[in-house]
Structures
1.
Amino acid sequence: MNNVEVKGFWPDEALPLVDTFADNFVRGGEEGAALAVYRNGQPWISLWAGVRRNKDAEIGDTPWTENTLVNVFSASKGLVALRCLQRLEQAQLSLDTPVAEVWPEFAQQGKGGITIGQILCHRAGLSAFHERRADSDIFDWPGITQAVAAETPWWEPGSEPGYSPFIFGWIVGELARRLAPAESFGEDFRWLTDSLGADCHFGLRDDELPRVADTGPLKTSLQTLVGGEQGADSAYLGRLMKADPRGVTNRAFANPMSLMISSNSRAWRQAQIPAANGHCSARGLATIYGALVSGELLSEQSRSLCWTPLSQGQDRVLGVPLRFGAGFMLTQDRQDCRFGSSPRAFGHPGAGGSLGFADPDKGLGFGYVTSRMGQSLLIDARAIRLIEALYSLPELAQ
């Protein structure tokens, strides 16, 4: 094994995976990270190593632990989608239900026919705000949801796929909130996580802030870590944004600019930005996906919506081919979008590297979190190596 102290628990047969996790620190520039895997609803593997850095002088740097929290960015989307699916099931509503049936104000600007399913699979044309928003807007839930309700689709809803980096979360979160007896989406989500003992949160309390790791750029190139086809990265995204400064891709990620530069701030950590500011431990992510796979959280009919394709094709915002179920990205035969070996695998990567996914055929719930942000738009090279090592274990390789 590499000269890295990996803590946690794992069966003997998982030593190759532990070695790969350690090697990500040696060759991959990892500074602090954790990996957890649930199998058939039970904890199977939990690894952590490195340092949790925090710029707050009163908190400072400490060793990474199993309960260290980190912003998982778009890996949050699977969590908010799950909560929405639970609330839809309880209310006996389908994906064909218009959003405006639950949220009447949403019908403005010709959006009355947009369905909940179109939102969840990114086919509603609501990928970005047209008009410039103030930086502080993203921290004001009533104000930002009112702005979303007044927004106009960028194209005919249902006609084309277009990833929604941030607006997705406010729509899906508001739907869940309106279907729940809760003051906020974050409060409603805590009812789910408290029942599971899952360490994942939207809107951190004061006493949770000391457990958060600051995120920062990865200082090592990942090109040599994996072979084969390389996926789209942030440089590619930057070219798309520069090609049309007023276009949907630019506005989706940089309107307002606080969406790109505020993620280590206290305001961001305590706000509710469900598409991008879930703060999770690796075990928290794996707990939720493990419970979802084992049938604890949704009926079989609702659960199948997670892996049933609802949208596929060249995405108008990210410029790459994507497949989506009801809020979850679906596996593809491409290295940066392959969730293991199951054709029914589903989950969501987050900017920089964090990842949560489920494999219903192998009974797995997977959670990986990192504080050093790589450049991939989808699955990071460090996570690719971990997935490949996991599925090479004798118990899963059959």
Note: The longest helix spans residues 76-91.
2.
Amino acid sequence: MTGPSRHLTRCFVAGIVALLPFGGTVLGILWLETTLSESWRAHVPFYFPGLGLLAALVAIYLTGLFVTSFFGRWLWRRVDRWLENLPLGGTL
């Protein structure tokens, strides 16, 4: 590859890799909102638009709270060590 095309390819791939976690988070929140709106609307009297977003924010907060606790840090390190022993898991 020549200089400009190599630069463009490298920047494009780096941009995709950088946006994947953000895109996954957005898609997960949209999925949660859609799922809650379809399944809860008919059965629960307290559904309101944005409940999926609120549930996603609470889930993200509780996950962060768990991961930063003593037991969560210990468990996260154990899972990380376990993944390093898997073929291809160490490269992730």
Note: The longest helix spans residues 3-40.
